[in-house]
Batch of 3 targets.
Target 1
Amino acid sequence: MKPIVVLVSVDSNSVLLGARHFLNYLKDLVKEYNLESTVDVLETGSMGVYMEGVIFTILPDGVHYLVKKTDDVKLILEEHLLKGRKVLSLEIPPERIKKTVEVEKVAEETRIVLQNVGEIDPMNIEEYIARDGYFALAKVLKEMKPEDVIDEIKRSGLRGRGGAGFPTGLKWEFTAKASGDQKYVLCNADEGEPGTFKDRLIMEGDPHSLIEGMIIAGYAVGATKGYIYIRGEYYGSIDIIRKAIEDAYEYGFLGKDILGSGFSFDLSVRLGAGAYVAGEETALIESIEGKPAKPRLKPPYPPTFGLFGKPTVVNNVETFVNVPRIILKGADWFKSFGTESSPGTKVFSLVGNVVKKGIVEVPLGTTVRDLIFKFGGGVEGGKKLKIVQTGGTAGTFIGPDKLDVPLDYDSYQNHGVSLGSGVILVVDETHCAVDLALNAMKFYEHESCGKCTPCREGTKLAVQILERISKGQGRKEDLDLLREIAKAAGETSFCGLGQSIPVPLLSILENFKEEFEAHIGAEGCPVGVCKFEKPKKKKMYSFRRF
Amino acid sequence: MVSVEEVKGIIESVRKERLEERDILINVLHKMQKHFNNFIPPEAVEIVAKECGVPLSKVYEVLTFYTMFSTKPRGKYIIRVCASLPCHVTGGREIVETLKEVLGIDFGETTEDGLFTLEKTSCLGLCGVSPVIMINEDFYGNLTPERVREIIEEIRKKERGEGK
């Protein structure tokens, strides 16, 4: 390695802020100034926090700069790299980045999933290997029997990070015990829960951890083929994962007789095409089979009857990435993070009206308040916090009175605050609960696959009613009607999509009841968001005379 | 005109990714759509059905189920606007209004000059820089109504330049 290293974040979010452009410019400048022998310019994933620019980190100095324009790049080169002087005007105080002096202790201890994101070049397999990458795979293949792997994962208490929280080890055990001439390992990277972008940043920052986790899963359950099903819109992730798979083949971590163990595993990418419901595991399986992503009747579950009718493991990106860490450091180490029933960490996406939007990894059991105020820097523009939606659009809407609930897999059951996919959507006082509920239900209406009636018709009716309330034409009985629809859809829908409708709808009706009531029979929206309309006069139809 | 050879060529290039007999249909359709400028012509669908050994009706079932596919011609630039809550609460509403105004079309429509199609999409997973839109394969974040006007104007200028 060269004496000076400049790390540039090139995840999707940073690219939007000009990261590629700045990176190429810096590389050109380094050539122009003949600094090639001393300065290395490397790409890295997300640093976890977004401001109005791209973060450049200079090592070994440990200085972070916020770059907004090409002139800034030149200034850094001329001042810092050439003359060794800090550019104070561009420097970001370490505490504004999460991986910093003050938070560093916490960050170091809790960055399990994200340990390489923002630290290595995702396109370079050797950097991953240099950080003990594929060591867990080697350990598994050389020292462990498939049952040992399953036992270790079971003992770790790892639960599915996609939202449902099913124990991963148990899922693997079912699949291992199921009989079938062919078994599959699928990665659900169809990240569609609004507000969630952790899987994108993991794939774009550390693709090999995911691949390694999947190969280990294959060995444990006896599967020799796997697919990563990525959302069709995630162009950046698709390219990076494809490159990583190619490299893993070249280095002999994929393909036949991996590391001389006799175990073979093939991996391929499949694309989604714009269907939220494809995130439901059986719908995802249908989609890989080249069919519409409509969920199957369960049971049978994928571990016994999955892809092409064969035993199949389906796990989320974040779940797989935890696996190599657990194998290398042990289940006991993993259990030292998080809570008794929910061990480990969770990657949260902080979005909406929060100061520092981005992803943050903390132990399970962290409170909503800490996430918003300690890591997110509070509400943007000094406004008052009004609503938080946790867990995504299929998650709960809560008010400021529930901020001290620790988030884990039991928090929905115990406190009515869902963990879901780990979204913390912060909404300030300028927004209206009815408008949010309408948006959430429109999402459901659009994404309902149409297979079963309660979901297809229920979402349509809920949208109609909420539209009427938001136009000032709500009726007294409307709130009860909404509750009834939510309950019916929750109890009778075919799959998890429709079954989850009551979570957002009932929670917002319950926690913001007064705001809904204030829309009915009133002159205007209390916050001024909804535009009230006078009801149109009904046209009188009559038969036209010819 | 759609030639059998070019469609077969595309299918062949995707076959490399195949692990099982029947697992490439959606990847094929993605590539096909990109090749034919944002939609899949009926002639191509027929060839895909034959080559992949899937009944024609089943291919259409897939094409019409997924929102990213289109069987009708669309604009040269597909603008996908995130309509989910994280964008909605950070100025997304204004972005939608501005786009409709600047383009003079509603969701699902194409401008008369055939340049733009406006579509609504669910969360694009770029909430760190919300509000966000996507134009073909490019993303634009931290948007304001002014920035949206600029972006559209830039594309229009580029297209006018090429037409001369």
Target 2
Amino acid sequence: MEGLKMSDQKRADNRSRFKVLLAAILLPLSLIVATSPSASAEPTVINWWAWNPGGPVDDNPHIKAFEAANPDIKVVLRNLAYEDYKNALRLAVTTGEGPDVFGVQVGPLTDQYASSAEDLTSYLSKSVLGSGWKKKMIGADQLVSAGKQVASPFYISAAGLLWYNKTLFDKNKVTVPTDLASFKAACAKFKAVKINCFIHGAKDAWVNLDMFQTISNQIDPGNFYKAIKGESKFNTPNYVKAFSTWKSLFTSGLVQKGSLGTPQYMDAYDSYMKGSSAMILLGSWQNPQMTKTSAALNAKTYAGTNAGKFLHMAVPMPGLVAKAKTGALFGGPDLGWAMSSTSKNKAAAWKWIEFLTIGEGQKIMAGQGNQPANISVPIDTSDFLSSSQKGVVEMQAKALATMIGQREIPNADVQKALADALSAVAAGTQSATAAATAVQKAINLAYGL
Amino acid sequence: MKRNQNRIGLLFISPSLILVGVIVYFGIGYTFWGSTREWSDIRSPSTSIGFSNFEKVAQDPIVYMALKNILIFGFLTVLIQMILGFFAAVMLSGNTIIARNIHKTFIFLPVIISPAVTSISFQQLMTPDGEVNSFLRLIGLDSLQQEWLADPKVALVSLVIINIWQWTSFSFILYQAALTQIDQETLEAAEIDGANSRQMMAKIIAPQIKGTHLTLVIMGFIGSMKTFELPFLVTRGGPAGSTEFLTTYIFDQTVLRFKFGYGSTLSVLLCLLSIIFTVVLIRNSRERNM
Amino acid sequence: MSSRVSKKKRILQNLVMIAFVIPFIFPLISVIARSAQGEGFILNYKAVFLKSPFFQFAANSLYIASFTVLITFIATMLSAYAFSKINFKGRSVLFILLLGGLVLPGIALVVPLFILVAKLGAFNTYWAVIIPLAAGAIPFNLLLAKNYMDSIQNEIIEAAEIDGCNKFQVFLRIILPLSKPISSVIVIWTFLASWNEFFLPVLFIQDPTKQTVSQVPQYFSGIYISDYPKIFAALIMTSIPTIILYLVFQKNFERGLSAGAVK
């Protein structure tokens, strides 16, 4: 009797315990459910990831214009130094917690992130550009991988340009070099006034690759782009000559001491922007530095120097070999914007990409002196500091129309092999001949030759 | 009673066992499995390729360079740290030095600072016109100036220097502890008997600190093999691979190039090396103690 | 060693010692000097204090460190006691197995950690950092703690057991109080390792509001782009908490470390 009573009591206890437990689970759940729908009253947040040096994080002109036109969407920009960017992006895109929109470059990055990105083909053909969108955007095909349109091209840029500080040149009465001899003469003059002549961040592989392509194009224009895919031979005298020329930049002192330990971004770049160095190898993506807006920004970023007062101009790299054929630029889409396939806000993410690559964003880029990917938007030089700088854009326009090749090396392993070879040759640990052979070996391996 | 002890013992160690078991041992097992696969994306399936990754490792020149770098780095850092640590411990053990605590604090401070902070700081201090070269000029050693991080012949040594700066005090503390264990009376008796410093060092002190030597060598080498932040943040394995370590190579292959299979193989190599080395050293010391 | 050292020798030794310590102090001074360049000392530190989420990051790091220390401490002390004082089957084998974790570099486990975190949906959570950190901290601390506890005399324990204490009570009432020196070592060492951890947060925490103090330089170079003086100011701010912690616990720490390390 007692036992039964106890178990009744126990059952009652259990039941009430169960009720409490149930309440404990349901209550927080209901709170979550109750609060979620109200999230639609808050703006959708798009996480946008890019690398340095990109647009400013605060007061970004693209974000400002977009949010004004789309008050229900908020864009949050995250800028990382390029190497850190690659590290951070990898795991982030495989979860739903990473960026909604992220930048990729042509080549290995596009391939590596093809599986993590949405195919933008249908989005693009349904946009204002219509089904013929491919012809209306420059370089879209360079951002295709595994049959997908991995990213939408943002703007076009060409590398192989020698940027120089016109203000420093004028002040010290130095003439802009046109060949190796005049280059060395200019350097001697700058050395006398304790200004570093040419700054090069050899720690960053990409700028070494740019310089090598520049040299190679001066020896045999355009052959590089065939050889790097195995359609022409790399272990030939021309490339050995290119490697030797590359090495001589270091041994002759044209490139500053300690270059192998200096990254192009930000250290070498800073040195140039601050006026500690007179020349640097970059590309047309530097065009915005000719605008008044950038000058004002530089004055702030490099407070304590004359950074805000400099006039920057560019010429194709002067001939570094005998009988050099100069003037060719190489490049393509500087970067494209991709949409993460795990994004929770794909419609909003597309709106942002569309803004950047087709709509108003293109006009903003044009206003900075960049060549927009959208063919119908012309470059706008109204904000340039000086009319002499407009000539730079005109020079580029011709070269951009006839770009000699794709800047990014298509195969990641070949790219690494060439980058390693350039590093070794510059360091003096590998001969020019051995370097050419090593790269050929990598090309053979990559293309099954 | 015994059975009770077994149960309780296991219960007490269960949190550690679970944590270390899952993270470390499951991790190793998974890595071993991963090393036999061709695998380039977290979400796409991998294909089995047996041990061909291991063949690739055996033929990879970067692996050999990394191994060479680890050995040189390990040897130099361990040796120099032990010498400096011992020297400081001896100097600061008596009372000939004034303001001993201040000395000790300054030597110990680097240990507390995060390796990431140290790496970034030294990267800037070791540029050709950075403070390190300026300091050398200041004390008249101009000729010793280097392109610390840009010259492939010097870059590894630069990392050794930074590592020594950071970790010497660890050796120092262990030696200090060992020295305090030595009976002061024995030393004083020996002194009265006419022994000079060198004899005291050899006959009394040296034997007592053998255990510390071994501990430091083992921990030092293991530490070298584990070093990541230093080569990664200061030189990224460059220039021209002169500071490439297995750890940075693993990171490069796995996180940057998505070669999970090959990255796992490299990890297996690193684990094997660490284990073999530790076992050899411990066995060596046991034999000697016998 | 003895007080019969001549005055000349004394001065020489002091000078040598100072020369020895200078290379250790020098980089610290350089970094502080650098943080005063650019826009100036005050503006730089003001930017770090006011305009950056530095304190948010520090709070995040504190959160991570606290949990890591808690978990590591509990797991370590319990196991150390068992390995030292309880005779159970498989004791030595399991001990060596646990110590095996000492030998492993974290980066070698990057692939399984990736997978585990992705599958558990733990990306951008603190646990993705806390758990691996604790697992990595246990072996070393276990070694120290067990060595220390070995020196606790068994008679005390036996007396307590005769009085009717079970193993857990012995642990709480006798072992823990007697282990205060090694406890402070474990707490401080684990806190340090956690606060200074760079690799795990870089991999697993990308949400800008959840980042740790070791990611401050990365964050700053994204915002200030090239303003190195501010980055250096941030680096110094990052180091101050650990320096203060050390200075406060200096004696305890040294005592405990030497007690646990000398076999």
Target 3
Amino acid sequence: MRIAYYPGCSLHATSREFDESLRAIAGRLELELVEIDDWSCCGATSAHATDHLLSVALPARNLALAEAQGHDAVLAPCAACYNRLASARHEVAASPEMAEQVARVLERPFGNRVQVRNAVEVLRERAAAIKSAVATPLTGLKVACYYGCLLVRPPDVCAFDDPEQPTSMEEVVRATGAEPVVWNRRLDCCGGAFSLARTASVVRLGREILADARRADANAIVVACPMCQSNLDFRQRAMLERGEEQMPILFLSELVGLAFGVASSALGLGRHFIDTSSVVRRLTPTPTAAAPKEVA
Amino acid sequence: MARIGVFICHCGENIGRTVNCAEVAETLGTLPGVVHAQDYKYMCSDPGQALIRQAINEKQLDGVMVAACSPHMHEKTFRRACASEGLNPFLCEMANIREHCSWIHEHRERATEKAIDLARFIVEKIKRNQPLETIRIPVTRRALVIGGGIAGIQAALDIADGGAEVVLVEKEPSIGGHMSQLSETFPTLDCSQCILTPRMVEVYQHPNIKLMSYSEVEEVSGYIGNFSVKIRRKARSINEDLCNGCGACPKVCIVKKIPSEFDAGLGKRTAIYVPFPQAVPNTPVIDRVNCAHFKAKAKGIKKEACGKCKEECSRGAIDFEQVDSFVTEKVGAIVVATGFQLYTIDKDQPEGLAGYGEYGYGTIPDVIDGLQFERLASASGPTGGKMLRPSDGKEPKRIVFLQCVGSRDRAKGIEYCSKICCMYVAKHTMLYRHKVHDGQATVFYMDIRAGGKGYEEFVRRAIEEDGARYVRGRVSRIYREGEVLKLQAFDTLSGEPMLVEADMVVLATAMRAQPGIEQLAQKLSASYDGHGFLNEAHPKLRPVETNTAGVYLAGACQSPRDIPDSVAMASATAAKVLGLFSKEMLEREPTVARVDPALCTGCFHCERVCAYGAVEHKEIRDRKGNLIKVVAEVNAGVCQGCGTCQATCPSKSVELQGFTDEQIFAEINALAV
Amino acid sequence: MTSAESHATNHHHETLAHRLERITGSPVLACYQCGKCSAGCPMAAETQLRPHDVMRLAATDRLDDLLANESIWLCLTCETCSSRCPNRCDPARVIDALRELALERAPRPIAAFHRSFLGQVERNGRMFELGLILQYKLRTGELFKDATAGPAMLTRGKLKLVPHAIGGVAEVRRIFAACRAAGKEAEA
């Protein structure tokens, strides 16, 4: 299936692993990711916190590009980008006034026909394919699925799963052979864009998330948002007390890639700040599985 | 030539200040057909009415027009005055020159002109009025009460004590409703079953009450005074005449772990069971869905599986072959007393409602609702009245109560207040304190609604004497950490976020109409609102009647209410029913529709538009008995006189008596002159 | 001029609640102060004004008190409040709308962050993270914060050294300009 691909600014930089791991597993899932030509930033938190029209217009430009390039759906792996693109689509559809304003500000035609999808829902749809493509099942690996905020809220915009008790990530995790744990902080905010501007808040919130994952006996936390990953990974040292064990923070696509037998280097695991080798060590190769194919 | 008398009322200053009544009388007196015209200060007074009677007598009037207030006020008064002098009351009409003229205008000359016009066209109408006779239809002096909860029980007893027969239909195996599930009732803390069961027994033993338990209304036809109701007697699998209520059969039943409906899912029952020890009737019923015998039969297994209860029964009362049976009852009035169900926070909801994912969608075992708490507190409940929590049977030392779960929550689909929760939550904190002396109850609320007699004092007692901690704020989320429940809350009065720990959480969930109420309402032609609550005829002044004549309401099926209000409403309903039954014949205003069979072509558009089902089919046959045509005929007992058929009929063959096309066009033409 | 006309043309007589309802479409006056939003707010421990306080001040026309308080800038837009509000009042959206009214009053680090971020996007079409970090440090004077992170990010290939402007960067700049102009028009 061909789908427009919107990596967003962070997937080319601080969250390169997310991009790398998605591309590494796409082939096995019959997903052809076609990067939108000349895409621009969605505006993220800064646009919607300061200029509402800008926060709709910037994503709208990218949706219009996807339309012009012949796509009917776009995959935005970054949860923030996903949320901005989906919110823009939703608002333009719901408000003729906003549609008009956006039309005036954009210089290209925009029919608002493109569906916006995130990595979790796209992977969930392919759970059966994931299961059959698993070469090294992650048996015994306990994983805490962390959704954060922007994948599931607001519920009207992100309608792919239940906003209070979602199950999509757990379904994907189960398909890899790993065991999703039951824990309480799945939907709590990590501190989002405050990593630079108010680091102390991120540390406070992150501590609670890590503590709860530990309480649930998780070996790793799996995320689908570059901000969450960055906050919990890059800033984790500040959250740990002396002697507390580190908690690897993986992207969902990295986890799937590991189960597929893709080399860690191809998945970008080496770029993490918190060592992920404890997870890699748990891989149990199945004797009968064919050698994992190298992805082009 | 008509001989009409015209009377213009000053109504003190109400009309007289703005309209020149003398001038109106004088002008009208000059109209052809008007033989008497006068104005007077207060037409509705005794002397005023005497003027009418005198004029009828002296001038042989054949029509009377009183220009005064709204007909809603005094039409009956003046018509009675005419009737007392032998003039058919429907030859008397009123022109409203008060609400429609003097009360809304200021310009004296123009108001007077308008008053003259208003009066004039009524005079023209009267010239075409026909004398009409009150319609009388016979009344069957029996009532059907649907629902055997406290409201249905009260209505049935009051009607039966009033001398009329009652058929009480209850869908559960026993009467008693939700009140029988309660532990104690506010504000007196009376034991609920202790005050209810005597009434239940009274119903059972009352010579005027025919109790049909485990039964449902299947079909309703007819009209006020003359309903025919088909009732389904569901198969208990027990012959009620043989069963003596000895209680032996549940003891030998091999299927034991069915969640008990009476215990709100917290206790277990057997497949053959009596719902609770004080059930009326005290006859068991077999749950065929879970019974081993019936399950095997359903699977097609030839060999008879399990018959332990049948073997055990010394009276041979168990009958596996029993099937649903039907009876038809003729009644004159129907009382709907179907009560309520509680909203659940589950994920699976009917259209228009949402559950509470933030509270766990009902998957956390120690998060229960108010009815379940009642069962825990009740001496006949699954824990024998000990306060033990469902997950591990431990005694909770900290219980948190949440008010307004579902209620007052537009996002979840219920915008209304359920009225009883503030009171029963206070009651729950007191019951808890009485059982667990070192327990701490916390209540999260938005407001406290305690408007009944002794209610405010009751809530204050919970707070000031029984140690309940009341915090104003709605809880954002409930989750479980090990053995402890955690609630993310906020005290809006002190402005502090709170993370509260609890061993058990009790949710005060919204009151909703019973499932299936829409289907029942449609059988009765009773209207209901978007939430399934049945509609009263007038929210202020006619709370126990519906817009369908002969169908009445009692209790929570109309809107959330507590026991005292349900009982009061049931007694009010009974009074209405007994009032209906007090006459041999039911009198109805004759301003109903009538079809001229000579003109009717039998298209039945009128039947399609009639909201009351008043149009019937009538065969017109020749002398030899051959069918000529089928025409419409209006049942005068059901017709409400709305006139829709008259407006719809393409052949002008149906008209409202007293409001014929001729009369109405006469009024219009009078204005056009 | 009828009162309806005056209401339509003269927004200065509009109450704050109506203004916010008009801008955001959310029913500010439906808030009955239940506090559920504040109960679930992850920043409640750090803010003076919690979401329900913001709604209260909005409903009682106290714009200056709202803009003078740094609390509205501490909102994470996690949308927990809006997703649970029983009256669908959307406090998150209301807070965004208030922020829009007063970027110049934001706490320095947060204003600096947003300005730096959007500055990068306007210049390059995409957010160039190294540029963001440098601009942010210059604006806030926090020159040594996370000093070791830079090299760590670089060695992990997480930071590009050179910005890369997209082909359509002129178009993006025009979008920024058009939105700024539309914003000025709305205020006039």
